[in-house]
Amino acid sequence: MYSLEQLLEICEKKIQEFKFDREPRLLYEPIEYTLAAGGKRLRPVALLMAANMFTDDLEKAFPAAMAVEVFHNFTLLHDDIMDKADYRRSRPTVHVKWNENIAILSGDAMLICAYRLLNQSPEARLPQLLKTFNEFAIGVCEGQQYDINFENAENVSMQEYIRMITMKTSVLIAGALKMGALIGNASSEICESLYRFGIDLGIAFQIQDDLLDTYGDSKSFGKTIGGDIMVGKKTFLFISTLEKASKEDAERLKKLMSGNLPIAKKLPEVCAIYDKYGIQEYTQQAINDYFDKAMSILDSLPLEKERKAPLHELSMMLLKRNK
User: What does the pLDDT read at residue 218?
Assistant: First the structure.
């Protein structure tokens, strides 16, 4: 049985060792650069943890874990182009360091590499692994398109928002967990339970990301605070406020979010409206609710407590919970 720390260390070592002895270097160097940038390694670690619930032999799970991480970073590479982001994990993004054409092509190559890695998984489980991988891969793309659609949508309901983050964020976490359980030869019922656990955990994780973007500390969060507000992104906080606010305050918020004020002025004015309606506390309660739903599913799994402990610890770490 591996601990969270051990799995994080194993994942990081495997990823840092992932090199390409191929040409042209301008195709492969950006991939190595992207993977070496670090990150939470949430998805590959979750896959390994799910497998470790049922087996101590994790060698057969490493290719799938790597495939999930390579795929995740592929999506980030292309997201950075669409978002015109200059930095990712405190380093210049690939399209800034090289150019957009190289970033697009390297991202395409990463997707192919992910499938090549996945193909090294146990043959008996490969059809189910491919099905799960394909389902969350297309789901991520669909979620990204919904997010893009929201940019020009006048109104976005909370139901639409939850659907978007479920597809853009949660399905990848849930799919990684299901793949790990499949590799560990878990029952179909447990595989589906872990998938549902991942959906709720992923929603909590994304709503927390929204909250930290507005109310977090830039050093601990690892991103510039107010980025969502600066670009007028429709987040959980924004949508919740529109549902609660007076017509006057709702129109004021929309005007602020769509305006071109400098962030030093825009952020406190938006926060003042959020604070008027208790949005920080309301958002934290939503995070807690989804987190508790996820933990309830995990706790109900018919497994020894020790087998579930690392995944419980990872979940607590992600949501920075004290209880």
Answer: 59
Contacts of 14 (CB under 8 A, 6+ apart): 62, 65, 66
Instruction: Give exposure, 189-208, as e/b (b: 16+ Cβ within 10 Å).
Output: ebbebbbbbbbbbbbbbbbb
Q: How far apart are alpha carbons 225 and 222 in whole angstroms?
A: 9
Provide DSSP, 125-152. GHHHHHHHHHHHHHHHHHHHHHHHHHHH
- On whether the pTM is more than 0.85, the answer is yes
Q: Are 257 and 270 in contact (CB under 8 A)?
A: yes
pLDDT digits (tens, 9 = 90+) for 166-206: 999 999 999 999 999 999 999 999 999 999 999 999 999 99
Amino acid at residue number 314: L
pLDDT at residue 13 in the model: 92
Tokens 């929603």 identify what position? 203
At residue 225, the pLDDT reads 83
**Residue 322: pLDDT above 50?**
no
Contacts of 256 (CB under 8 A, 6+ apart): 266, 269, 270, 273
How would you class 107 by CB atoms within 10 Å of its CB: exposed for 0-12, middle for 13-18, buried for 19 or more? Answer: buried
CA-to-CA distance for 23 and 216, rounded, in angstroms? Answer: 42
H helix runs in the chain, sequence order: 4-16, 25-35, 42-52, 62-83, 94-97, 100-118, 126-152, 158-165, 171-183, 188-215, 218-221, 227-230, 236-244, 247-258, 263-276, 279-300, 305-319
Residues 64-92: pLDDT tens digits?
999 999 999 999 999 999 988 898 888 99
242-249 contact pairs (CB < 8 A, 24+):
242/155, 243/158, 244/277, 244/279, 244/282, 245/273, 245/276, 245/277, 249/273, 249/276, 249/277
